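Q: What does the assembled structure look like for these inputs?
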Amino acid sequence: MGDTATTHHTKSANNGANDNQIGFKSRVSVIGSGSWGSVAAKLVAFNTLNLSSFHVEDANMLVFVTPHQFIDNICKSLVGKVRSDAEAISLIKGMEVKIEGPCLISTYISEQLGINCSVLMGANLANEIAEEKFSEATVGYRNNREIAEQWVQLFTTPYFMVTPVQDVEGVELCGTLKNVVAIAAGFVDGLDMGNNTKAAIIRFGLREMREFCKLLFSSVKDDTFFESCGVADVITTCFGGRNRKVAEAFARNGGKRSFDELEAEMLQGQKLQGVTTVREVYEVLRHRGLLELFPLFATVHEICSGCLPPSAIVIYSEKKNIFPV
Amino acid sequence: MGDTATTHHTKSANNGANDNQIGFKSRVSVIGSGSWGSVAAKLVAFNTLNLSSFHVEDANMLVFVTPHQFIDNICKSLVGKVRSDAEAISLIKGMEVKIEGPCLISTYISEQLGINCSVLMGANLANEIAEEKFSEATVGYRNNREIAEQWVQLFTTPYFMVTPVQDVEGVELCGTLKNVVAIAAGFVDGLDMGNNTKAAIIRFGLREMREFCKLLFSSVKDDTFFESCGVADVITTCFGGRNRKVAEAFARNGGKRSFDELEAEMLQGQKLQGVTTVREVYEVLRHRGLLELFPLFATVHEICSGCLPPSAIVIYSEKKNIFPV
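A:
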């Protein structure tokens, strides 16, 4: 593995002594890093008795929870080393939306390793879960309800509630698109527009998320947006989180300081996922001639790229939204 | 009219000179009081040219926007004085939920005056609309789309966006039930549970709102909860508003000071709608043997009435919600 691989750590848990809880003899490996990686490992450890040394070859449940830019190298390093009957789950937020179609991380893992991959998303800021404050999440699965139930059991603790939904694409896309809505919400905060406006913008965003997901995958279900990965994650991200925060600063500066500059100052050079995602979303919509149906997404990108002032978030989103999508 | 009637004021607008905007010659009367009444009159006035003296007999569009406890006397005073072809719209939040069924204010107006009644609800804190900050609302109508479009045109301004939905019951019930969710959110705030928990509780609340509405009226549409009256109004009410505020104080005091006491101190003796509504909702659910399917609503009432401590909001809502409604 390259440079990136050195930053991830792995933990595994053999819950053979705890069959009733997971329902079958399994070895779980958490392939992760960062605060979310640590918290995920803690949740999994609660449901398994023995933490032992790590051998990917033995694991039949693989939990991926790395920053999204590391997943390429990690997958490449695992090719040929994973049991063919293993199941994976991705907790990684931030797939790429390419013009030829979205590149879901779950699909990428699945294709690279030749195994099925579910996803876990939701309103779960890592630091609050670390404090064992009540949180929840959504597991998106493809076909096999039993596998979904196993993931639910693996992650559920007295303070962490997990709900399965048969909609892997909808659940995974929510985890990325919410960052675009958070940028819009941050603009509203920076413009001091008030609660009504912010709620309206969040609602427009949630609707556009739903329509965009359905545009890409006709299988996506409306009900997914009532799950933790949908409305709840949008709320936490629009009231906390760094996408909202930097967007607020951008609007307070009247768009005169670029996102690049603010990211360098406020995030020590890390990039905002929302800015990247909305550029990709914009390209997809432009390519398909559908920009007019997604006024909020389009306007967020036009503001981020300096083509429109921050105040356009209301004027444009409203004008185009007078007749619902 | 009795004492209450003296507190309401009326405004009317003859928009004969402005036919194109409303689409037909109409006389609009706003029967209202309070800050929301004033703001509603301002919105209507924007779309009509001449404010003139008020004669109910002449009006064919009646806008009701009074505190809900006044509507009985107002309707009684209007019996026999309203044109039979008049159309009404209620902006009043706070119908009663009786065991024999909910008593919607739109239905009450309709039955008392023998005219059709639509509703207008949404994420619209009056003071922010008064400042002309962008807000939106949902018009719930029964059958006639043309009437809905007329109400939309009457209320729409550059800073106020209105969307019609054919679901009068769903829209009206949202305007009342959101206050119950706001009390739950206030408890979470008072317990310092954090963003994840609050988002989870808001989501549980939104789902129970939807299920409760569908239980009472099978015609209620899922999509109504994606409108301003649904998710957006729930967000504004759970982050602002007095139901949330008093519930937060209740939780901070560990439930040792009653809602009666806090209302007297914080609201100058006014009563919280959410506390009344959730008691009514609880009775309906108990009567139908459905309390277990609505753990959040049930727990909010049990906390408000002193049967459970504020901390129960998470423990109970979560336990019962492990398997989705």
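Residues 196 and 202 of chain A are 10 Å apart (CA to CA).
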